[in-house]
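Recall that a protein's primary structure is simply its ordered list of amino acids. Everything else, from secondary elements to tertiary packing, is in principle encoded there. The following example makes that idea concrete.
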Amino acid sequence: MDLQALLGKMTLEQKLAQMSQFNAVFLFRDAGGEITGPAKALALTEDELNATGSVLNFIGAKRMKEIQDRHMQDDPNKIPLLFMQDVIHGYRTIYPVPLGMGATWEPALMEECCKMAAKEAAVAGVQVTFAPMVDLVRDCRWGRVMESTGEDPYLNCLFSKAQVRGFQGDMTGKYDIAACVKHFAAYGAAEGGRDYNTVDMSERSLRQDYLPAYKAAVDEGVEMLMTSFNLINGVPSSGNKWLVDTVLRKEWGFDKVVISDYDAFREMKKHGYCENDYECAYAALEAGTDIEMMSNCYVKNVKQLIDEGKISMAQVDKAVMRILELKDKMGLFENPYGAASEEEEIKFNLCPEHRALAKKAVLKSAVLLKNDGVLPLSDNIAKVAVVGPFADKGMIGAWSCGGKEEEAVSVADGIGALIGKTKVKVVLGCEGTAKEKPDAKEIAKAVRLVKNSDYVVLCLGEKREYSGEGNSRADVTLSEAQKTLARSVVEANPNAVAVLFNGRPLALSDIIDDLPAVMTVWQPGTEGGSAVADLLFGKENFEGRLPMSFPREVGQAPLYYNRMRTGRPPRDPNDNSRGYESRYLDCLNTPLFPFGYGLSYTTFEITPPMLDKTEMNRGEEIKVSVKVKNTGSVAGSTVVQMYLCDRFASLVRPMQELKGFEKVWLLPGEEKDVTFIITEETLKFYSANGKFEAESGEFNLWVSDSAEKGESVTFKLN
């Protein structure tokens, strides 16, 4: 395709239409309803609709083909539409939410799951997914915590790259779809954990902690990037020239498509940054944002901006060429349908291979938080009581695209399939709403059941609607109804385990001591119940480790392990009774469950780290070695984690930073050597000089199985 010739024959109006994205229903002229922002009448002309460049929010190959056929019939230049959708953690076969996938500490597994999702999405007509979401998250109140892989920049970078590889492949495969990394930038740092709120941080923190995961996606070849709703240094991201043009385009060399989030252009007026749509269009195009999603600022205002000399035709042409190049790269001019196929939808959706992979992901993402000896359960029993608001329904999670709750395996069904349906009895006890009060009658019904049961499985947590975009929570504890139910049930039968369904870390201090065993399975997806059953009855061992700290109290948020040191730290982190220290009067500073934490059905020992030398010149490396041993009676895995601390630097450095990890599977009594390599690159940070560099000096290093443990050694960079 001669793209330059195609661009040359397009009118300005047609170019601006290519730079606009609308809901798919607009192409059938039946627009209406709200998805994630206002989808009001945009006064679009027939010509503007006919030349539209891309659409979002549709389901299925049949619908996609109908829309593409209609468009190709009406578009004067016969330029195919791009079809985009939020394929976040599966298309029809749903695997755990990204926060759960972060708990696997297996980027390769995430890549495999994204490849599966891409196949199902591609045959349904999806050509671009609005994923990965790589926002660094430190505040569990934020609803979109579930969409990230956690609080650590290093871990997030690995998962960022893995998702890009999984979705895109090499962009030549039949089922490869383009990925769109989001939300650029620092959306996860919204003040108060409240969605769409402002972000205000130093450039050092932005570059050191928040930008790396986006950069990792860019380096991996991601085809598209989405700007965020929030401000950066007082400027909305979609119109932020420093962020998009200086950092993304010039510093990082990203010359591909940049798209706004839903109606974000016009929201610059509500921010108080732009007075009208005309100013919104100018700010966004001047910044370098190519496509506006669900607003009409470009199509209605850029002509005037060009006539007045504020915007050049060259700027418009550059944006349109990026869009055309992506369509050409994906082969859409030859085949506008891509891989869309109603027959292959039936073949791939929920096929045994995909279900098996989804189950594998749940098994590896579940984290055992507490076990006072109740687990694993014995299957040589007469009755299991499955109690709680999530006992008899599948939990596919927020942003589950084409997934259906009725196709997901519940805990009750999973246990029934494993030990026999007649042995499983269900009582909900409450509904699981946030402010629900205890119902004495329903709790009494649950107590009667558990008294005559061998074991109790309590299915607690939060509804899927309490996570995702716009769903921030000020209170991330369990409801009073759930806590009263749990205490009543455990008092009646202490052979109980709590299975938590959650899209974020929960504050559990007021209930954790009442529960003999606790596991979190996040929002697990299609095969959640079958995997939970295998874990409960010891058919599989727990492998998950927390990618985000669980607070003791919600008042600790934002809470994260790689925090900066203070001049008055607590002399004892387990004692908050001393005055004139950085502390709470009514809570310890430390998390209830730290980053990297997770239990197993076996135990492990990690020896103190041994260094092959304690001083390193620039250009050299240090080898760090530990021995890991399975000291228990069953096979299992642990995540060996290496942390560093730069003791003295030109800027205060974090207390600790994850710089390497290895997941190790060991048989009972088996021992393995684990080695990490420290180079000058490992020690780099954004210094007081504004450079990414390593400064000479001493560093502490420790290797452990969570961020709160480890015996440190010291080395020096000369």
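The two ends are 56 Å apart (CA to CA). The chain has three domains: 3-7+18-85+176-338, 349-554, 602-717.
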